[in-house]
Amino acid sequence: MGWPFRKQEESSPPPPPPLEPIRIYTDSAELDGSVITGGERMTDILARGDELSFLPRGADRDRPEAWVALFPNDMRIMVPPPHVSDPEQRQPRERQEVTLTIGEFRVTGIAHLRPGVERDVYLRTTQPFLPLTDATLMRSDGAGAQQYEVVIVNLRWAEFVET
Predict the structure, then answer these.
(1) Which architecture characterizes domain 20-76 according to CATH?
(2) 122-147 confidence digits (pLDDT tens)
(3) Residues 151, 131: contact at Cβ < 8 Å?
(4) Does residue 17 or residue 121 have the better pLDDT?
(5) N or C: where does the chain have the smaller number of CB atoms within 10 Å of the terminal CB?
(6) Between the CA of residue 84 and those of 64, 69, 158, what are the distances in Å?
(7) Where are the chain's structural domains?
(8) What is the CATH code for 91-161?
């Protein structure tokens, strides 16, 4: 048995949580920077409705005043950090190609919807943030098309386009 009153070595503080890249479109700006997700999906974080701490690109994470509080309802479109869901938590989904307009943008991608879900009215009340995979984001006039693995759309600001 060791001596219980031995001087303990001071341990170094744990490293800060990793910063993850994100692009956020609001009604007036396109923001590139980082967030701390703690391993959660962005859709889960956004669904809670709490403000999101966002660090603009190039800002010093150690300066508290560098962080910006963004409210989910003010975000129109997000290109979230990469995330791989636990296969055991995945639920069966129907894949549906959708096109939406959000302000001056148009997004086309694959929505993964629960079987039988009406994609407009019911979806807006139960899932205000819709992730789309294999997404194309462009201006409404077709300019500047960009491909993304995942884009999250705030359905409060979106209109479905019938194709």
Answers:
(1) Roll (2.30)
(2) 455 567 899 999 999 999 888 999 99
(3) yes
(4) 17
(5) N
(6) 29, 26, 26
(7) 20-76, 91-161
(8) 2.30.30.100
